[in-house]
């Protein structure tokens, strides 16, 4: 139980900490087009991301997949750039954007999972089962993402309801800001 709680806390901090800006920006870009009414869609998106993250983490810990860390650090903000750009380019195509977002969340989760792979590989001993650490980490990650999503949705509700901000303006503003920050990170981390 001690191991489970340790990895649960680690998963939580992986998304909630101040060092997790890339994950937080990705979650923001991913859900920027949704509102409270669409909470089921958001939950599926966040879970798809966690599943992708979990698969890559498991494959990395088992040493099946390995990618140089400089490439991973470059690809992570690139996924954010692509997600934010998708919000801007597909702003009038909500139905096709929903389907695209599910696949992007899963696929980009695979890439984001590589970001923690080296640390996880060192932390989990070869003789140790990966089931408990992986389960704890991913529950912590999922819980952290849900807290971030909830905070974003509360902010959006306040802006839409009290301040009468137009939803399309919100999507454009948030996606453009996330795009700019992630593009800066991507250019700073170019491995070539």
Automatic annotation (TrEMBL):
InterPro entries, A to Z: Put_HupE_UreJ
Transmembrane stretches, start-end: 15-35, 42-62, 74-90, 102-124, 144-163, 170-187
Q: Keyword Translocase, does the record have it?
A: no
Question: What keywords sit in the KW lines?
Answer: Membrane, Transmembrane, Transmembrane helix
Name recorded for this polypeptide: HupE/UreJ family protein
């Amino acid at each position: 139980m001690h191991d489970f709680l340790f990895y649960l806390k680690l998963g939580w901090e992986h998304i909630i900490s101040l060092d997790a800006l890339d994950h937080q920006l990705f979650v923001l870009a991913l859900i920027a087009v949704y509102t409270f009414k669409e909470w089921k869609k958001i939950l599926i998106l966040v879970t798809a991301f966690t599943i992708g993250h979990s698969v890559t983490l498991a494959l990395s810990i088992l040493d099946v997949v390995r990618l140089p860390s400089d490439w991973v650090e470059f690809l992570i903000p690139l996924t954010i750039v692509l997600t934010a750009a998708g919000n801007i380019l597909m702003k009038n195509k909500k139905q096709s954007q929903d389907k695209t977002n599910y696949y992007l969340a899963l696929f980009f989760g695979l890439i984001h999972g590589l970001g923690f792979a080296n640390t996880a590989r060192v932390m989990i001993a070869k003789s140790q089962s990966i089931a408990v650490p992986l389960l704890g980490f991913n529950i912590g990650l999922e819980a952290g993402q849900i807290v971030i999503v909830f905070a974003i949705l509360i902010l959006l509700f306040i802006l839409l309801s009290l301040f009468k901000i137009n939803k399309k303006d919100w999507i454009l503003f948030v996606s453009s800001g996330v795009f700019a920050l992630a593009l800066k990170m991507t250019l700073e981390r170019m491995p070539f």
